C-alpha cells in the first residue's frame, strides 16, 4: 500500500468515476484502474462496486476511504512541518471565497501576494459559506474567506477587516432625504435582497427589525449587486451594499449612498481554516498580507458586527 494508491483511492471516491478521477490526477485511466485493483487485491476486499451504475462505494470501502483521508492528511502534515521549519512559504493551496467578497477583495490583494510569494500556487474558487465549511472539513480546501462569526467549533476564524453596510437609496424613495440611516428606518419589504444562500442576505435580514413576508409581489434570484442597483434606480426599492462594493460605483451613483449612524452595522470578514489545518505558513502569509494591504482602504472602528447566519426564525432545525 502506497501514498500514491491512497491518493488515487480518494480521487475515485470524490469523483465517483474512474475517467474523471484519472483526468483530475493527470494520469491515464488504465494506470488508475490498475492501482486501485492492486490495492483491493492486497487488502482482499472490494472497495468499489463497479457492477452498479453509478459506481458505488462498498461499506468496507467507505471505512478504508475514511482512514485513507486521515493517512494522507498526516502525511501532508509532515511535509508542511518540514517546510515551516525551513521557512519555506509555497506549494499548492486551495482557497474558497464567498461571492460577495471575491469581486472586491481579490483585485486588491492577489497580484501583490503572488509577486511577494511566487512559490505559492493558489487555486481560488468562488463558493458559498456552507460549501467552504464542507470543503475545509473534507480536506478539499486549505482556507476560506467568509463573513463571520459562524459558530462552528472546528473552524478557526481570523478576522481580516470589518466592512460597514451602506444604503443605496434612489431619488423618490422615502429615505432619500435622510442624512443618516438607522436600523428602524429599514423595512424588509422595501429592500432588494440577494438570493438565498448568500450570507449577505442574512446579514441584512438580521439588521432589519421587521420579518420577510411570506406573500411577496415577486421573487428575485440573483447574486449580482449590479442587478440590485439597476432595479433600485428603476424605482423598485432600495438595497444595502458592502462598503468595498461602493468604491467601484460611478460618481453619478455615489449620490445615492447613505451611511448609518454610529456604531455602523458591519460584517466581519475573516480568513477561516479547519482546526486541523497544517499549512500555517501560507495561512499566516495570506492573513498578514490582506490585513496590511486593506488597512488603507477600510478602517472602521465604531461598528457593530451583524451575524451572517440566518435569522433564528429562518434557521432549519439541526
What does this structure look like?
The chain is α/β, with parallel strands linked by helices. The protein folds into 2 domains: 3-84, Orthogonal Bundle (Arc Repressor Mutant, subunit A), CATH 1.10.10; 91-318, 3-Layer(aba) Sandwich (D-Maltodextrin-Binding Protein, domain 2). The chain is built from 11 helices and 10 strands. The protein has helices spanning 3-15, 18-25, 29-43, 59-85, 99-116, 129-137, 199-207, 225-233, 243-246, 251-254, 280-294; strands at 48-49, 56-57, 91-97, 120-126, 143-148, 155-168, 239-242, 257-258, 264-274, 303-305. Strands 3, 4, 5, 6, 7, 8, 9 and 10 form an 8-stranded mixed beta sheet that branches. A two-stranded antiparallel sheet has the order 1-2. The model has no long low-confidence stretch (mean pLDDT 88).
Number of helices: 11
Strand content: 15-25%
**CATH architecture classification of the largest domain:** 3-Layer(aba) Sandwich
Shape: elongated
Cα-to-Cα separation, first versus last residue = 39 Å
The CATH class label of the largest domain is Alpha Beta
* Series of secondary-structure elements, N-terminal to C-terminal: HHHEEHEHEHEEHHEHHEEHE
User: How many independent structural domains?
Assistant: 2
Task: Count every beta strand, where a strand is a DSSP E run of 2 or more residues.
Answer: 10
Q: Kindly state the mean pLDDT as a whole number?
A: 88
The value of Rg in angstroms is: 24 Å
